[in-house]
Amino acid sequence: MNTFVAVGSTNPVKIAAVHQAFQQVWPESIWQIEGVSVTSDVSAQPMSNEECITGARNRARKALQTLKADYGVGLEGGLFQVGDAWFNTGWIVVIDAVGREGIGATIAMATPESVMRFIQEGMELGDICDRLFHQENSKQGDGYFGLLTQNAVTRTTGYTQGVLSALARFLSPELF
């Protein structure tokens, strides 16, 4: 039986992460994963966990509704502050066709002051990475995580882990 998953993004890294996570937890299923361009209705560079979750939720709902899927998945990266330090993370929301919602996150990585200066000037993290690492469209490749860790953690592996954590809601429904 095919199960249809709509991803609220056309970014191949995010689509691959969703596919890897769903395939890992339900290997016996056949997954049809399709990305669709939807808006997050949050700022281009979210600056709090709340804003990221809202953006991911909006993307998941819109993807689910637009493609009439079994699951909608929204992934939204952004920054959050703890004391004087800033961190980069990604939030994931998975919504099924009956409205149950799972929320998860990627790892969080410290954001250097040199990067924060560019963000405070209005640049997005992906553009900053392209500039600092002499890349082109790094957000559709290894991204911030991969560039800073020399690919020990890539954007795909980070988002895959985040999707897996969001799927906990569906893997252990009796606890939710």
UniProtKB/TrEMBL annotation:
One of its GO terms (biological process) is nucleotide metabolic process. SUPFAM superfamilies: ITPase-like (SSF52972). It is an enzyme of class 3 (hydrolase). It catalyses: XTP + H2O = XDP + phosphate + H(+); ITP + H2O = IDP + phosphate + H(+). Binds 1 divalent metal cation per subunit; can use either Mg(2+) or Mn(2+). Residues 8-171 form the Non-canonical purine NTP phosphatase/PRRC1 domain. Keywords: Hydrolase, Magnesium, Manganese, Metal-binding, Nucleotide metabolism, Nucleotide-binding. GO terms for molecular function: ITPase activity; metal ion binding; nucleotide binding. The keyword Nucleotide-binding applies. Its EC number is 3.6.1.73. Phosphatase that hydrolyzes non-canonical purine nucleotides such as XTP and ITP to their respective diphosphate derivatives. Probably excludes non-canonical purines from DNA/RNA precursor pool, thus preventing their incorporation into DNA/RNA and avoiding chromosomal lesions. Belongs to the YjjX NTPase family. This is Probable inosine/xanthosine triphosphatase.
